[in-house]
Amino acid sequence: MEKKLVLKNEISEISKLAAFIEELGEELDLTPDLVFNLNLVLEEAVSNVILYAYPKGEQQEISLSANVSDNNLVFVLTDSGKEFDPTQAPDADITLSAEERQIGGLGIFLIRQIMNQIEYQRIDGKNVLTLGKQLN
Amino acid sequence: MEVKILEQNDEKVVVIEGRVDTVTAPELEMKVSPIWATPAITLVFDCEKLEYLSSSGLRIILSAHKQVTAKGGKFILRNLTNEVRSVIDLTGFSRILTIQ
Q1: Which residues contact B50 (CB under 8 A, 6 or more apart)?
Q2: What is the pLDDT of residues A40-88, one digit of tens each?
Q3: Within an 8 Å CB–CB cutoff, is residue B68 touching chain A?
Q4: Up-side HSE of residue B13: CA atoms within 13 Å toward CB?
């Protein structure tokens, strides 16, 4: 199974992403919990690209593919924006008290918690982020 | 997303329905930030009909907690669905927030 989505680098495109994941959930008969978590992960990854990868006002595309083989669901997110490796971003420290907790850093933390595979590559001037989840 | 703000038994209750994501979170913040500036307030987020919450929503929850408690008030998350509760647990927020 392969499914593809192309988004513009506009924040309103996040709604299309949600619909894409809902459809995928129905096709693969995923639990509502997993659909929720995958939505969370992909929203983090895609909104990072939309907000930071391209100069303001420059229209670009972001492509997302979903593949399933051997019970492994793999998303590949590709953009031609500036080089950014989200796997190098520091995690939020979740052991701190509320007063010490920082507002940011949660996105990459959630991706690491939910997914089994996170790989970044820079290929031909493109950021390629691979996110895998083992299905039970 | 729909947001209703109610006054109930000395509490300000923010009823959040639908999805809080990167697109809708700024609207939620705009609606609740004037409230969290009030000293010694009890601010409640009623999440019974909250279907989805991304990290942009989690940031608002943390901001609300910080702002309200810094001014001597109380911040409460109420009626979480299982899915929203599991994200709150995953991020360690359940240890620092009051959940009913």
Answers
A1: B16, B17, B18, B20, B80, B81, B84
A2: 999 999 998 998 899 888 899 999 999 999 999 999 999 999 999 988 8
A3: no
A4: 13
SS3 of residue A102 by DSSP: coil
pLDDT, tens digit, for every residue of B3-21? 999 999 999 999 999 999 9
| Cβ within 8 Å, pair A94-B87 | no
How many CB atoms are closer than 10 A to CB A6? 12
- Give B62→chain A minimum CA distance, Å: 7
pLDDT of residue A104: 64
Separation in Å, CA A101 to CA A27, A118, B9, B83, B99: 39, 25, 30, 23, 18
Contacts of A99 in chain B (CB under 8 A): 66
Element of type H or E holding A42: helix A32-52
Task: Indicate the pLDDT class of residue A103, thresholds 50, 70 and 90.
Answer: low
Interface of B with A in 7-36 (CB under 8 A): 19, 21-23
Verify whether the Cβ–Cβ distance A44 to B55 is below 8 Å. Answer: yes
Best mutation target among A22, A43, A96, A108 (most B Cβ atoms within 10 Å) is: A43
Partner residue opposite A32 with nearest CB, options B58, B62, B83: B83
Give the pLDDT confidence score for residue A36 in this predicted structure: 96
Helices (H) and strands (E) in chain A, counts: 3, 5
